[in-house]
Design brief:
With about 60 residues, this protein is of the alpha+beta class. The protein has helices at about 15-20, 25-35, 50-60, and strands at about 10, 40, 45-50. A hairpin with a 2-residue loop joins strand 2 (about 40) and strand 3 (about 45-50). Helix 1 crosses helix 2 (about 25-35).
Length: about 60
């Protein structure tokens, strides 16, 4: 079952960094490691808002 993309809100890396209170580089690392799913649009990434909410709710496992 596929989700209608018109219902998905995508955030920029800068918006995600602001929501999570981390640097943009940290968000890029999370995207590249697969910890945070993202879609590539040209040279930039967009992250589904629901993915950010899930990471914030579950917390980050690697704290050190």
């Amino acid at each position: 079952m596929t989700q209608d993309l018109s219902d998905v809100r995508f955030l920029t890396v800068a918006e995600v960094a602001g929501m999570m209170r981390v640097s943009k580089m940290t968000v890029y690392r999370m995207v590249h490691s697969g910890e945070l799913p993202a879609i590539r649009f040209g040279r930039s990434f967009r992250v589904p808002e629901s993915a950010v909410a899930a990471v914030l709710q579950n917390g980050v496992a690697d704290v050190g």
